[in-house]
């Protein structure tokens, strides 16, 4: 995902009103194994984007219609805005592979998906929108049509 025009937004809740602010106009999301140096430790995939970092979990909000991904990094809410459907789909494919690995401890391939079973949540459906709660406000974390994103 190098060299793309993916934008990173940060949710600013100062003053109680809450607003999305552009944090970086061109970022390159990067997945890494946080346990890479630990001997015999299970794989733990994380996402790093600029100063934002988060473990890959099913708590990411994937919004294909708006080509957005919202996630919590520490106490901050971040949003990635993708310039095209192709860059969004490429990100979601990587995300799904790492989510499967974090959930089941094995690589996301046909054999391992069959072992996990048809009802497993090995990947987040790109047509659904998982939700999370923004801190201190109790407001749903998805973006709506009135968002600047």
Nutshell version of this structure?
This protein is α+β, with helices and mostly antiparallel strands and 149 residues long.
Describe the structure.
18% of the residues lie in helices and 30% in strands. The protein is an alpha+beta fold and 149 residues long. It has a single domain (6-116), classed as PH-domain like, CATH 2.30.29.30. The strands form two sheets. Strands 2-1-8-7-6 form a five-stranded antiparallel beta sheet, covered by helices on one side. The longest helix is centred in the middle third of the chain and has 20 residues, at 85-104. The protein is globular, with a radius of gyration of 16 Å. It starts with 5 loop residues before the first strand and ends in a 33-residue tail after the last helix. Residues 122-146 have low confidence and may be disordered.
N- to C-terminal distance: 20 Å
According to CATH, what is the topology? PH-domain like
Beta-sheet strand percentage?
A: 25-35%
Tally of contiguous helical segments = 2
Shape: globular
Derived from helix and strand composition plus strand pairing, the structural class reads alpha+beta
H and E order: EEEEEEEEHH
Rg, Cα atoms, Å? 16 Å
Overall CATH class: Mainly Beta
Q: Which stretches of 5+ consecutive residues score pLDDT under 50? A: 122-146
The name of the CATH superfamily reads Pleckstrin-homology domain (PH domain)/Phosphotyrosine-binding domain (PTB)
Let me know the largest β-sheet: 5 strands, antiparallel
Give the fraction of residues assigned to helices.
10-25%
Number of domains: 1
- What's the overall average pLDDT, rounded? 80
DSSP E strands, number:
8
The assigned CATH architecture is Roll
Strand order of the largest sheet: 2-1-8-7-6
């Amino acid at each position: 995902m190098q060299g793309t025009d993916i934008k990173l937004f940060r949710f600013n809740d100062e003053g109680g009103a809450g607003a999305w602010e552009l944090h970086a106009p061109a970022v390159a999301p990067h997945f890494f194994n946080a346990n890479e140096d630990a001997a015999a430790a299970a794989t733990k995939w994380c996402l790093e984007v600029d100063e934002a970092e988060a473990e890959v979990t099913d708590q990411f909000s994937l919004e294909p219609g708006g080509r957005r991904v919202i996630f919590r990094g520490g106490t901050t809410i971040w949003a990635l805005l993708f310039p095209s459907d192709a860059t969004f789909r490429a990100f979601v494919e990587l995300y799904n592979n790492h989510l499967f690995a974090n959930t089941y401890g094995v690589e996301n391939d046909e054999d391992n998906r069959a072992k996990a079973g048809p009802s497993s949540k090995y990947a987040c459906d790109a047509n659904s929108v998982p939700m999370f709660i923004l801190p201190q406000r109790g407001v749903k974390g998805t973006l709506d049509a009135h968002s600047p994103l």
